Target: Putative amidohydrolase
Amino acid sequence: MRKMIVGGAQMGPIQQADSRETVVARMMELMRKAHAEGVKMLVYPELALTTFFPRWYAEDRAEMDRWFESEMPNGATQPLFDLAREMGMAFTFGFAELTPDGHHYNTSILTDAQANIVGTYRKVHLPGHVDHDPERTHQHLEKRYFEPGDLGFNVWRNEGVVMGMAICNDRRWPETYRELGLQGVELITIGYNTPSVNSQKGAEGLRQRLFHSDLSMQAGAYQNSTYVVGVAKAGTEDGHHLMGGSIIVDPDGEVIARAETEGDELIFAECDFDRCTFGKATVFDFARHRRIEHYQRIGRQTGVIVPV
Ligand code: CDT
Model:
């Protein structure tokens, strides 16, 4: 048996005025709680260090560079890395990355138990739009401020477990899980910031938003026989509400831990990674059952083409 206690560090809202240092202090508090529960791998949300700034429109996108990190770790986050090293805790969190050559990505990093960065992922599926859209109840300008990730979907053997990362909207796409599943993933970490209102369909409601989130991650876990940890940044940020609903899902697709609040909250569960083997060797033994000769469209066609 390969058992590890995995934690999700859901975070409550971060206001525009909150400093990185204040936020990191909250992350460290969650890490201390996780350590007390025996957690060895801790998952924080997407854009964990700042407010969800893509909701704000700036004519000059360079104004938004203040939300980006040009190195990691940096002065503000170093104490979190130091604490993790002291506690022997692997972790992952998301942040806005500005590269030395001027590229902007929605990024997450993965560390080992010595706080060495062993993996980097840059969000592939960027939701929203590029220009200000007056038809929407609120803006979602990820396509304005970020470029699509250039690293693809990778896994890392970390602390004895095959781990992969995805970010927020990626969780709604089966391609995300299957790319990772084809590399034998056993733990997929997904941080998210999901507005509780659909800006183009107000009637949708929070219940259905949470259902779609659960549905996507539970299906991804089951169909690839992997654990999935989805962790929210939740609550009201400068008047805009983000849903909670952080969960840990087992390789059967069952939810084994769930957040109850919209604030800073630790969820955790003991994961036995040997449980991933059964599904991978039977109903989802890809080598025996996949028929890639019939999947060609997936790799060559992006949008829908309906026959005339
Ligand atoms: N952060 C992020 O990717 N949020 C999206 C909202 C989509 S609405 C344009 C999500 O899929 O949760």
